[in-house]
Design a protein that fits this description.
By secondary structure, the chain is an alpha/beta fold. It contains 10 helices and 7 strands. It has a 7-stranded mixed sheet with strand order 1-2-3-4-5-6-7. It is globular and about 50 Å long. The structure holds adenosine monophosphate (AMP), fe (iii) ion (FE) (2 copies) and zinc ion. Residues 12, 17, 42, 252 line the site of one fe (iii) ion (FE).
Amino acid sequence: MQSVRGYDLHTHSTVSDGTQSPDDVVRSAADAGLTGIALTDHDSTAGWADASAAAREHGLGLVPGVELSSRLGWRSVHLLGYLVDPEHAGLVAEMARIQAARRSRAERIVGRLGVDYRISWDDVLRQTGKGSTVGRPHIADALVALGLARDRGDAFAGLLHPRSGYIEPHYAPEPAAGVALIRAAGGVPVLAHPGAPREEWALSADAIAELVDAGLFALERDHPENRRGGADRVDALARRFGLPVTGSSDYHGSGKPNRIGQFTTAPEVVARILDEGTGSAAIPPA
Ligand code: AMP
Ligand code: FE
Ligand code: FE
Ligand code: ZN
């Protein structure tokens, strides 16, 4: 496999909606020749222990992280939090609240789908790991297993589309509160994939200014799901606010076409994250 040195700062495991266990994500990163990764499961730090053990075994750098859900009106906004304290009471409580809201929301979505299709909550549970953060991707996997969708992408374009009539949002804190919480937990907050939504749906410069005031560290500029011109728009925002930029793959195993190491983050930005994050310790590469 072609070697990609550097850090991929956004990956998912079966602790949320990735398809590989935390140690397999680490193995995939090592196989790809990466220097290190951040494991950033949605609203959970439960994969850190297994990922850390695997990182030590493979000599891979590991930045423990989380992708915290937030919400501004109808907009879902994701915040990467690196090196947070996984036992910070406020963060633990917020992640538990979001996880519970995600689960009851998913049950209601499946209830509505079940009126029209032969899908039950048990079908979805079969697709989730124990204690994993439940999301539409697990409902997608159940739809695929039942022959009701070809793959996750097909499910998201159809029955799981926000306008399908089956979907509702879930509770999440406002983005500025999420940024402040990540900082309070000793972490380094980065706005995830701001170049991915359609331009008219992306956060406004004013909204980003509020996040900067709350302690935002950087913008994730390079991302596989960026729209045309998305990276340039993010770059312009970063220059306007004097923020660093990151690059990452948002790897979900076979759950998305994104390849691990598809984008990486400049070493000096990784160094600043390691310097500013005080809530937990990174594992250095061998
Ligand atoms: P949810 O958090 O339940 O609203 O679902 C959103 C999650 O689904 C995000 O974390 C994405 O990683 C994933 N996702 C969104 N669109 C797609 C897609 N087209 N294919 C696969 N996964 C997707
Ligand atoms: Fe995801
Ligand atoms: Fe995300
Ligand atoms: Zn992600």
